[in-house]
Design goal:
By secondary structure, this protein is of the alpha/beta class. The chain contains 13 helices and 11 strands. The strands form 3 sheets. The chain has a 7-stranded mixed beta sheet with strand order 1-2-9-6-5-3-4, sandwiched between helices. The protein has a two-stranded antiparallel ribbon with strand order 7-8. The longest helix is centred in the middle third of the chain and has 18 residues. The radius of gyration is 20 Å and the shape is globular. Bound molecules: glycine.
Length: about 350
């Protein structure tokens, strides 16, 4: 059964979720954006699996297709690759009414999305996310970026896609760890908004229903706060600590795993500080463990705090920390950066 979530941001767009959507993406792209040429920018691994089917579907829908495969991994999300993509679009004579199609996970979505935002001051982009994390988070909401030497996502634009097609068949090919990283983001939505979702993720769940529900929550956050100045920041639950863990590990610990540990740490801390209903962590922990996600980190709290001081979410001497009040309700709290370590220390010890 196909599910559709409409997002009223940018020009407004549908996020469609159904098995087999990639093989029939051409008609969907034509209906949503039209144009004569489609520039397919693919993660090389996703491209090897699904690129031919996507190209074929785009051609069958009447597109002139050109394709560029990008080496998988965060290291491709850099300024040189971005400039090469812009030049490639120009060499292929892509015009303003044509479309960029991004096939892959969050890295490709960010890189192709930022290319689309900048090429000719903006051409339509269609996201074809092939990881769970990209389906429930990165492909929706228009955050696009590349990394700078000083850190991740330091150059980018808010640029909404024209269409997002999630084909859950692609999740079958994901390594367990990558799939689990996406589950961390679905667990986050349970902590933020939905105790029943959190409970379901600990037992039996229908993955397509979970994706649609999470996309619905992402849509709500984006519609309330497209530019990320208020309600959308709740989506950073677990991310302040998580980014510090990622950074200290030299990005060896993947984003989702780091966020899982961050959520566990901040929930334990909030409970110990009297901000969060007792028993909340007891609900979170088994769900994280079921999905083989970490509930703590080996990094010392003072190292984590030092990394958090450099977080790009820091504003002056303060940083916004997302604090669970209970499962299904979280709150944004501005803390002086000097108070972070004291606040988090009761959560930093894994029970
Ligand atoms: N990934 C968080 C956001 O889109 O705001």
């Amino acid at each position: 059964m196909e599910r559709t979530v409409h997002v009223s941001a940018g020009g407004g767009y549908d996020v469609r979720i159904d098995r087999g959507l990639l093989a029939r993406c051409g008609e969907a792209v034509r209906q949503s954006v039209g144009g004569a040429a489609a520039a397919l920018i693919a993660d090389a691994a996703a491209g090897a699996l699904y690129g031919a089917a996507v190209e074929q579907s785009l051609r069958a829908a009447g597109y002139r297709v050109c394709r560029r495969d990008i080496t998988p991994g965060e290291q491709s999300k850099n300024g040189q690759e971005f400039l090469r993509l812009l030049e490639w679009c120009a060499e292929r004579e892509l015009t303003r009414t044509d479309v960029i199609v991004a096939l892959g996970g969050g890295v490709i979505g960010d890189l192709a999305g930022f290319t689309a935002a900048c090429y000719l001051r903006g051409v339509p982009v269609v996201q074809l996310p092939t990881t769970l994390l990209a389906m429930v988070d990165a492909s929706v909401g228009g955050k696009t970026a590349i990394d700078l030497a000083a850190g991740k996502n330091l150059a980018g634009a808010f640029y909404q896609p024209s269409l997002v097609l999630c084909d859950p068949e692609t999740l079958r090919s994901l390594p367990q760890e990558v799939f689990a990283g996406g589950m961390a983001e679905t667990i986050k939505y349970g902590m933020l908004y939905d105790p029943a979702l959190l409970a379901a993720l600990g037992t039996d769940y229908d993955l397509e229903e979970v994706i649609a529900r999470c996309v619905g929550y992402k849509r709500d956050a984006v519609e309330q706060d497209e530019r990320d100045t208020g309600a959308r920041q709740l989506l950073n639950l677990g991310h302040t600590v998580g980014h510090a863990i990622e950074t200290l590990s030299g990005f060896a610990i993947p984003h989702g795993q780091a966020v899982a540990a961050g959520m566990a740490i901040v929930t334990r801390a909030a409970e110990a500080q009297g901000d969060c209903e007792p028993g909340s962590y007891e609900q979170l922990e088994p769900v994280l463990r079921k999905h083989r996600l970490p509930v703590g980190t080996g990094f010392a709290l003072d190292d984590l705090a030092a990394a958090m001081r450099r977080d790009k979410k820091r504003a002056g001497d303060e940083i916004a920390l997302i604090i669970p009040r209970r499962v299904g309700l979280c709150q944004r709290r501005l803390l002086p950066v000097d108070a972070l370590e004291d606040y988090l220390w009761p959560g930093a010890v894994t029970r």
